[in-house]
Amino acid sequence: MLIRNIAEGDADWLHALNEACLPAVNQLSHDRLWSLVGKTAVTRVAEVDGQAVGVAMTLAPGIDHDSMNYLWFDARMDDFLYLDRIMVADSARGHGVGQALYQDIFRIAAERPGTRAVTCEVNLKPFNGGSLRFHAALGFIAVGEQDTEGGKKAVCLMRRGVAENMP
């Protein structure tokens, strides 16, 4: 598996992947999703046999971004990389792509001056028990909860220190 920075040629693939991962991620237009890439601290793409199969998009503190979950962390912390979305193609699930992307993000976060944690959220409503277990196994701990989308969704806000060892 190769993990690399995103490139302009990935824009159509990224949008198709985002659409395929609904409702685990929120829907964004092609242009809005690519605009989000421009705001990221780093966006990493996982490839298997030359085919892009996964992506991790992170945001640093203090940027202009309207996600309620990002804003929750940004209001309380200044030492994080927020994992805005991690997506893996159906064909690649269960083959370690997600874990490899997380390991890559943990490495990058550890190398960034002033960054002490990776943050993210996991759905509680609709309940995503598999994701909660996955994140717990990676060392994430719950630091808060909030309702989103007018109460249609609820999330567990999570943080993992970058100095912690990977399982």
Features:
alpha+beta, Aminopeptidase, 167 residues
Describe the protein's architecture and organization.
The protein is an alpha+beta fold. The protein has one domain: Aminopeptidase (3-Layer(aba) Sandwich), CATH 3.40.630.30. 32% of the residues lie in helices and 33% in strands. It contains five helices and seven strands. The chain has a seven-stranded mixed beta sheet with strand order 1-2-3-4-5-7-6, sandwiched between helices. The longest helix has 15 residues. The chain starts with a strand and ends in a 6-residue tail after the last strand. The mean pLDDT is 94.
What is shown here, in short?
This protein is α+β, with helices and mostly antiparallel strands.
- CATH architecture annotation name: 3-Layer(aba) Sandwich
Order of helices and strands: EHHEEHEHEHEE
Radius of gyration: 15 Å
Main sheet? 7 strands, mixed
Measured as a percent range, the helix fraction is 25-40%
Q: Which stretches are low in confidence, meaning pLDDT under 50 for 5 or more residues running?
A: none
Strand count: 7
Using the coordinates above, name the CATH class. Alpha Beta
Distance between the termini: 19 Å
For this structure, the CATH topology is Aminopeptidase
Give average pLDDT, whole number: 94
| Individual helix count | 5
**Integer tally of domains:** 1
Strand content: 25-35%
Main sheet: strand order: 1-2-3-4-5-7-6
CATH superfamily: Gcn5-related N-acetyltransferase (GNAT)
Return the structural class.
Answer: alpha+beta
Shape: globular
